[in-house]
Amino acid sequence: MSSRRDAVHDTLRQSEGFRSAQDVYAEMRQTGAKIGLTTVYRALQALADHGKVDVLRNDDGESVYRACATGEHHHHLVCRRCGHTVEVAGPDVERWAETVGAEHGFTEVTHTVEVFGTCSSCSTPVGAG
Amino acid sequence: MSSRRDAVHDTLRQSEGFRSAQDVYAEMRQTGAKIGLTTVYRALQALADHGKVDVLRNDDGESVYRACATGEHHHHLVCRRCGHTVEVAGPDVERWAETVGAEHGFTEVTHTVEVFGTCSSCSTPVGAG
DNA sequence: CCGGGAAATGAAAATGGTTGTCAAAATCGC
DNA sequence: GCGATTTTGACAACCATTTTCATTTCCCGG
Lengths: 129, 129
Ligand SMILES: [Zn+2]
Ligand SMILES: [Zn+2]
Ligand SMILES: [Zn+2]
Ligand SMILES: [Zn+2]
Prior knowledge:
2 copies of one chain form a homodimer. The longest helix of chain A has 13 residues, at about 35-50. The first copy, chain A, folds into 2 domains: about 1-70, Arc Repressor Mutant, subunit A (Orthogonal Bundle); about 70-129, Dna Ligase, domain 1. The first copy, chain A, contains 5 helices and 6 strands. In chain A, about 40% of the residues lie in helices and about 25% in strands. By secondary structure, chain A is α+β, with helices and mostly antiparallel strands. Chains A, B: It is found in: Cytoplasm.
């Protein structure tokens, strides 16, 4: 229905890592797209609600979004330098979370798991001769 | 040095779960403490910087703090209803995070892991009996 | 006890991401 | 074409957090 929402989704698909609403907005405007910030926020929220994109909070507390390849439950390995993101599965972690919750009598157990690091490209020594 | 910082720390110790700066401030004022909101923010940040309290972001993006029993690396099992928090260890998760990072050539790997659920007290049926 | 300088404090203003408002514009159904 | 419905986006409102800056407190030598 919404060409704007699709445009937002497309913009996100072109990005490798997680992007904030403001990022997406700026990029779309830069490429000549005619869209308002409010609409970008709404599109992003709608996409997240529909499970079309993943959302998490960065260190600044901003919501950042990413169009992941899979709709399955997964987590992320994110380069804190360049933002390069790898989707990773962790069956052990899934089990662990469930177990830990059950051990303490918790139900409806969910979890958040994110892994950060410096990717190989970014960890290549710059000053090494 | 700072009696204020100690007061903030004490207030946090009296809380079972994670509390926001505004929460702590409100509670301290309620109990008659003479302190400003700015100072509460600063004390909380300082305590977090010194590893004296744990900090994470709640669903609203607010920073929430907790005075944990151990200074060791650990994670949390949090009741999303009453905030009841259990400190949990997850050696398997620690290993998994390292492994996943290494497999993809990432270095300086860190992670965030939080488990949420409904604690036994909160999951007791209310209308039953 | 006195004074100066550094550190701590907090009221008020600024910041900034996000959400709410609401009128205009686009779309739909007929 | 036309009214009903949805979408859009400029702008204002929100609200947690930060910054500012003048005042207060603390520390310490004299
Ligand atoms: Zn990188
Ligand atoms: Zn998982
Ligand atoms: Zn509970
Ligand atoms: Zn860990």
